[in-house]
């Protein structure tokens, strides 16, 4: 348990009265449809301390009763770095309650209730806590005069009837977070001149005297609250459909900060048009310091400062587009990031490519796909074995495996699903998926069910092969033949899967080239696949998947097309048809001349 100094404890006592006023006002309100957090916190920059009081109004919406509740206290993951959280008291309306710090990394708070909380029952819990922020470039840290507060306060763990309590520890290389939707009233006291950005909407700023101000933020129907702040921040804003969009950046990065603002606006526009409308009234992009590229929270994202260099403009655009996409995939369509990270990270990764396609065109999107997804994963496969994309974060042996499997391979699976379904059905799927599960918890099995409904058929074979299994195939043209036809030639191409550790059925593009042009077809290769199609002109060669639409190994190789003569009887129908045409054409031509 982290200890704090006398000054911090004195400050905690000093704000108790003001916190009680705020909490009492909220207590008088009717029971909310969601849980409600009311918090009163102070940030002291001189010693990087956050002193807070929290009131949680909770309703048991499960069919089981609880004798204990669990909270995540993620700052304790940073105890070895001189940071952490000290929970100083927990109580209900009748008085103090026993509590204990648990978990392999000390990031769980177990609260024993006074009496069992029955289904439909409600309670109010109060907590006081002190957080020590590390001097660290991280999503929870302070560096270069910039504060990043992600996952910084006690937050109720999720319970479900299938898995029980979700008590995953802190995951350093990604996210292991899973939270209920709730409403927040947040009062934050900081020094005057300290510019603060938070999840929610700033509804009031009050001067307290002594160089301090109190900000009141309100956030409705969000999974968590994050904040960033700095005395050095400059702020720019724009608007889209009544949505206020803000960019917070350091003064030396004004040009990049304004660019990040425009990217966020464009991303909200295209994602709203294709997935469903952004549901909140405001959104914020904040320059912070971190080992990551970006980090997502409801209504606010952190982007690492190194991407604000002029030379990193392309990466800044991609990362902002990725993190904005998490407002759909994670923030509002809610998944369990620890056990099913594919549902948010792969979707955000592929959404950044869709952003490029919708804003800059398909050619730029193809280049972005190669640079950010295909190229990195092919390089990964040159060093490591392929692994499934649908595992939990704990099932990957290293961050390198996790990132490549979940982000890169995971996005590739979505791209291949688009190829299989076609654009109309694929984008209808994304819209339907978001519409059905917005502000709800969702599982991979739910997505597969919705995909099959939109597709109109079974897709278990696709997801079993590409999402839940490992193995990357190559493809080889076994034969390519062409037979003369009145409209050109009938081509017959046999494609076989080579390697891959088992059959990996996929809709594979096959391109047939003639003197007149190139013609692309999709062939379902289930071990082998056969293309039969008519093309104009004389076929010269065929190639399997020249643009690497399918996750595969091997180079792009042209296979020559052999023209074969038909047997006489097979030509008879065409000969009879040609003769009949000639017999009709001559009299018709004479009649037309006489009429002229």
The parts where pLDDT drops under 50 for at least 5 residues are: 1-31, 567-596
Mean pLDDT: 91
The coarse silhouette is elongated
What is the helix content?
25-40%
Give me the Rg, rounded. Answer: 30 Å
Measured distance between first and last alpha carbons: 103 Å
Largest beta sheet: strand ordering: 5-4-8-2-1-14-17-16
Q: Tally the beta strands.
A: 33
Specify the oligomeric state.
single chain
**Could you describe the largest sheet, including whether it forms a barrel?**
8 strands, mixed
Relevant terms:
elongated; disordered N terminus; alpha+beta; eight-stranded mixed sheet; five-stranded mixed sheet; disordered C terminus; 35% strand
Description:
The chain has 596 residues and is an alpha+beta fold. Helix content is 30%, strand content 35%. It has an 8-stranded mixed sheet with strand order 5-4-8-2-1-14-17-16. A 5-stranded mixed sheet has the order 19-20-21-23-22, with helices on one face. The protein has a 4-stranded antiparallel sheet with strand order 6-7-3-11, with no helix packed on it. Strand 20, helix 3 (254-274) and strand 21 (282-288) form a beta-alpha-beta unit.
């Amino acid at each position: 348990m982290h200890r704090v100094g006398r000054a911090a404890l004195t400050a905690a006592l000093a704000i108790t009265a003001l916190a009680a006023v705020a909490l009492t006002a909220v207590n008088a309100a009717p029971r909310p449809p969601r849980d409600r957090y009311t918090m009163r916190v102070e940030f002291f920059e001189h010693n990087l301390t956050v002193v807070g009081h929290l009131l949680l109004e909770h309703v048991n919406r499960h069919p089981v009763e609880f004798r204990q509740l669990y909270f995540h206290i993620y700052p304790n993951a940073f105890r070895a770095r001189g940071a952490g959280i000290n929970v100083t008291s927990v109580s209900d309306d009748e008085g103090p309650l026993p509590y204990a710090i648990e978990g392999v990394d000390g990031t769980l708070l177990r609260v024993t209730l006074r009496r069992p909380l029955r289904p439909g029952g409600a309670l109010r819990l109060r907590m006081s806590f002190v957080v020590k922020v590390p001097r660290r470039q991280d999503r929870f840290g302070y560096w270069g005069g910039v504060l990043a507060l992600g996952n910084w306060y006690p937050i109720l763990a999720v319970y479900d009837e299938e898995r029980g309590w979700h008590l995953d520890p802190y995951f350093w290389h990604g996210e292991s977070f899973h939270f209920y939707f709730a409403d927040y009233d947040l009062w934050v006291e900081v020094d005057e001149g300290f510019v603060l950005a938070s999840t929610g909407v700033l509804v009031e700023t009050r001067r307290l005297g002594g160089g301090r101000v109190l900000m009141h933020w309100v956030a409705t129907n969000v999974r968590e609250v994050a904040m960033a702040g700095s005395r050095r921040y400059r702020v720019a804003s724009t608007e889209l459909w009544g949505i206020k969009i803000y960019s917070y950046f350091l003064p030396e990065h004004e040009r990049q900060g304004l660019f990040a603002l425009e990217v966020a606006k464009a991303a909200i526009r295209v994602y709203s048009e294709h997935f469903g409308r952004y549901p909140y009234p405001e959104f914020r992009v904040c320059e912070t310091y971190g080992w990551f590229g970006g980090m997502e929270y409801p209504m606010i994202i952190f982007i690492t400062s190194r991407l604000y260099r002029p030379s990193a403009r392309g990466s800044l655009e991609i990362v902002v587009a990725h993190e904005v996409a998490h407002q759909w995939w994670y923030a509002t369509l809610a998944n369990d990031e620890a056990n099913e990270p594919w549902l948010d990270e792969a979707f955000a990764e592929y959404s950044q490519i869709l952003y490029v396609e919708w804003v800059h065109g398909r050619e730029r999107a193809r280049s972005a796909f190669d640079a950010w997804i295909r190229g990195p994963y092919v390089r990964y496969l040159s060093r490591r074995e392929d692994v499934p994309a649908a595992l939990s974060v704990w099932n990957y042996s290293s961050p390198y495996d996790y990132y490549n499997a979940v982000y890169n391979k995971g996005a590739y699976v979505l791209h291949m699903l688009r190829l299989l379904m076609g654009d109309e059905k694929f984008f209808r799927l994304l819209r339907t998926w978001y519409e059905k599960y917005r502000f709800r918890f969702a599982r991979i099995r739910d997505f597969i069910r919705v995909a099959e409904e939109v597709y109109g058929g079974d897709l278990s074979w696709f997801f079993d092969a590409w999402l839940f299994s490992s193995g990357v195939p190559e493809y080889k043209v076994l034969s390519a033949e062409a037979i003369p036809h009145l409209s050109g030639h009938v081509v017959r191409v046999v494609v076989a899967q080579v390697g891959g550790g088992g059959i990996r059925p996929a809709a594979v593009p096959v391109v047939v080239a003639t003197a007149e042009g190139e013609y692309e077809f999709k062939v379902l290769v289930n071990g082998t696949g056969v293309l039969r199609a008519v093309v104009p002109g004389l076929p010269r060669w065929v190639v399997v998947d020249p643009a690497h639409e399918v996750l595969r190994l091997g180079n792009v190789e042209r296979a020559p097309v052999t023209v074969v003569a038909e047997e006489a009887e097979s030509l008879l129908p065409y000969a009879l048809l040609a003769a009949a045409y000639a017999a009709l054409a001559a009299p018709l031509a004479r009649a037309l001349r006489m009429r002229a």
